[in-house]
Each structure stands twice: as structure tokens, then as C-alpha cells.
Write a structure and sequence with these properties.
mainly alpha; Urease accessory protein UreF; 0% strand; globular
Amino acid sequence: MQPAAQTISLLLADARLPSGGHAQSSGVEPALLGGLPVDQIGLFLAARARTTTMVDAATAVVARHAALDCRPMTRIERAWSARTPSGAIRDASRDLGRGLLRLAAAVWPEATSSFGETGASPPRPLVLGAIAAHTGLDAETLVRLTIYDDMACAVAALLKLEPGDPAGGVRRVLEACASMEPHVSRLAAITEHAHIPAAGAPQAEAWSQDHAVTTRRLFRA
């Protein structure tokens, strides 16, 4: 029997999911190394949610539609790549996608059938979309899941980089997710790759590029 969609969403949002998220900081470590003050992390998360994370959420929704309709993912992946100009951020997403695809192959093997044409490392939002289609997650839940996962990953990394009160981290996650709530319905309604928003974050992308070549880091990205 297939678990309820609500259970699947809780599983995918769990930081203990063995898909490699523990090695990522959602751009927080690059930002701190680039000079962002710790007291501006909340602003950083809100900006990331409206840019990189929004692109990922919309991409996941379009991938879900494609998987439901048995359409190829190639154009969606290209659209995502065009809207994710930082090679370091793309590489990090593919690392996460590879880990999530490995998990899906063991738990939901049917969900992996969409990736024959994209190679072994599709980006994370494509894999999330395929899993959502297979497990019955609706589009709005998928948007919220994508946003929450990115914000929670960032705050978990922050507590390792700049230890503080974990309750403050929870507050930051809730605030960042709440800031995106007005956009959830619009993102969930996107069905075509051409309509994925193109929201860039040049400074964060530059920080990520610099971070990718440093040897003094705790996180992959």
C-alpha cells in the first residue's frame, strides 16, 4: 500500500533523509565567507527564497506535470539550467538530485523512469517533481516542500557555522517560508517550462562560485 501523500511530504522534508542534504548549506557558508554579517542571515534567506528557491520550486512543479503526462524532462532541465547561471549552484543541485534519485530507486523505482534522457545526475527539483507525481503530492504541497527544505538546510548549516540558539533558527525558517506563501498558488499553477520564473541572485551566485574553489569550507555549497 502506498503511504499517504502527507507522510511522503513529511519524509521528504526530514533532514535525516539520506540524500546528501547534510553536506549542503543552501548558500549560507558561501555568503558568510563572502562577508555577509550573521545578523543579516534572515534577509539572505528571504532573498534566496525569492530567487534560487523560487526557480527550483517552479521547476519541480513543471517536472511533476511532465511526469504525470509521461513527457520528457529534457526541456525542463534546460530551462532550469538557464535560470541557474552559477555552475557551482547547478553542481550542488545535481549532487542532491543524484542522492535523491538513488533513494527513489530503492523506494519508488517507478519515479526514476523519467530520467533516461537526462543522464545520471538530474537536478534536485526534477527528481522531487517526479517523486511528487508518483506519490500523489499536489503542486502546492510540492512548492511548500521545496521552499521549506532549502530554508531548513540553510539554518541547519548556520547552527554549525555560527552556533546559536536553535529556536532562533526555527524562527528564521518560519519567517522565510511565510514570506513565500503569497507566491505558492501562482507557482503551483505553472505547467510549462517557459513559464518558470527567471529570478537571479548575482551576489549569492558570485559567492557560490568563489566558495567552490576554496579548500577551507565545511559544506559542499
